[in-house]
Amino acid sequence: MGHTVLLIPVPAFEPFVRARWEHYDPAWTSRDPHFVHAHITVLAPFVAEPTVTDLDAVAGLAAGARPTEVRFEQVAAFPDGILHVVPEPAAPFAALTAAAEAAFPQCPPYEGRFDELVPHLTLDHEMTGQGVDSVAAALAASPTGPLPLTARVEHLDLQWYAEGECRLLARWALGSGQRLR
């Protein structure tokens, strides 16, 4: 069983995040060269089988967002153990999630499990024995490099997540909504 996800890929973190996936759960590591593991989730799970109308609405969401430079300052932990970095500014990502939720009310973010949504990029989890300091050190020693890190985000992706089948389904340019894939 799998599901779709709308997300903003952050290729600057891909070497680190992909290596974590390969280490902890290789069956979920994508072989699709266009799939980006490092991302900020916009809406998950998304529509199981998006229609042309759904895809047009996603293009509108992408057109309403802008490509931007974001800065990631430090590793943090959520109460559930997710080790992550928060993009600054975070407001454009929160606005995009709110717009996506309004366009697709049948798809509440994270199935409505969280009262507060914090835009973030997941790096690891405490259940792996890692912590804020160890992940920050591993990140600094990786090809991704140490924090702070500035990255440019330019796309809204629709990805499929299923064991052995993770792949990019579609990609739109932020600012224009032009479908790129």
In short:
The protein is built from 4 helices and 8 strands.
What does this structure look like?
The chain has 181 residues and is an alpha+beta fold. Helices cover 26% and strands 29% of the residues. It has 4 helices and 8 strands. It has helices spanning 14-24, 52-64, 91-103, 132-141, and strands at residues 3-9, 39-43, 68-77, 82-88, 121-125, 149-153, 155-161, 167-173. The strands form 2 sheets. It has a 4-stranded antiparallel sheet. A 4-stranded antiparallel sheet has the order 5-4-3-6. A hairpin with a 5-residue loop joins strand 7 and strand 8 (167-173). Helix 2 packs antiparallel against helix 3. It is globular and about 45 Å long. The two termini are 24 Å apart.
Mean pLDDT across the residues is 96
Contiguous uncertain segments of 5+ residues: none
Q: What percentage of amino acids are in beta strands?
A: 25-35%
Distance between the termini: 24 Å
Strand numbers in spatial order across the main sheet: 2-1-7-8
Oligomer: single chain
* Classification by helices and strands: alpha+beta
Net shape? globular
Total number of strands: 8
User: Helical proportion?
Assistant: 25-40%
Biggest beta sheet summary: 4 strands, antiparallel
Rg (C-alpha, Å): 16 Å
